[in-house]
């Protein structure tokens, strides 16, 4: 049976409404790295929204696996 893991983006540098497409805060980058370490051996595909905070959350896991996340505009 397939397993789907959904990870919400890490903490952004700006609140919703304050910035159209904020990057991650320092804490958010640490959260993304922690999530990547937790999921590194889990296998599966990596999908991300095109938003900066989402791409930056997916990046550490993609780097650990040596692959690029698939960006899906509809996400």
What's this, in brief?
The chain has 2 helices and 2 strands.
SSE blueprint and pairings:
Blueprint: H1 26-39, E1 47-48, H2 52-65, E2 70-71
Parallel strand pairs: 1-2
Main sheet record: 2 strands, parallel
Number of helices: 2
Topology pattern, helix = H, strand = E: HEHE
Main-sheet strand order equals 1-2
| Strand element count | 2
Radius of gyration: 12 Å
Unreliable residue runs: none
Percentage of β-strand residues:
5-15%
Mean pLDDT over the full residue set = 95
State the secondary-structure class.
Answer: mainly alpha
End-to-end Cα distance, whole Å, is 23 Å
Helix content: 25-40%
Shape: globular
Question: What does this 3D model show about the protein?
Answer:
This protein has 75 residues and is mainly alpha-helical. It is 37% helix and 5% strand. The chain is built from two helices and two strands. The two termini are 23 Å apart.
Give descriptors for this structure.
globular; mainly alpha; 37% helix; 5% strand; 75 residues; single chain; 2 helices; two-stranded parallel sheet
């Amino acid at each position: 049976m397939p397993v789907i893991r959904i990870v919400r983006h890490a903490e952004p540098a700006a609140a919703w409404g304050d910035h159209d497409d904020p990057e991650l805060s320092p804490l958010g980058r640490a959260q993304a790295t922690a999530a990547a370490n937790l999921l590194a051996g889990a296998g599966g595909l990596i999908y991300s929204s095109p938003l900066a905070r989402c791409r930056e959350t997916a990046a550490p896991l993609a780097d650990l696996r040596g692959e690029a996340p698939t960006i899906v505009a509809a996400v």
